[in-house]
Design brief:
The protein is α+β, with helices and mostly antiparallel strands. 23% of the residues lie in helices and 26% in strands. β2 and β3 (50-61) form a beta hairpin. This is Fructose-1-phosphate kinase.
Length: 111
């Protein structure tokens, strides 16, 4: 058994936005932050017939994000990531102390 809580959403909803799917398929996106837990390490998900494996899941303060984290999310910088997230979620405030689940993943190599 793992030390994670019960998932709040299905893994198939981890990466859904078409631009983020394209970034993941291109290898430009290797992380997804969510308010809830969508997957456990070792689980897989499929995007356009390509299998990805969740390699780690951890909690992070949103205020601890770096530019490197934003690039792993598929964005050029933290400033652009923050701006787009706030535009996508009307009425949301950027709470530096807010906790998110960081889902890291990689393309699974064919056997």
């Amino acid at each position: 058994m793992n030390h994670y809580p019960e998932k709040s959403c299905s893994i198939d909803r981890l990466v859904r936005h078409p631009k983020l799917v394209a970034a993941t398929l291109a290898g430009e996106k290797t992380q997804q932050r969510r308010d809830g837990l969508y997957a456990y390490p070792g689980e897989t998900f499929v995007l356009e017939d390509v299998v990805f494996e969740v390699t780690s899941v951890e909690r992070q303060r949103i205020g601890d994000m770096s530019d490197a984290d934003a690039r792993a999310e598929g964005y050029p910088s933290l400033a652009i990531y923050k701006d787009l997230i706030l535009k996508m979620h009307s009425g949301m405030e950027w709470n530096e102390d807010g906790l998110v689940w960081v889902h890291s993943f990689r393309r699974q190599q064919p056997e």
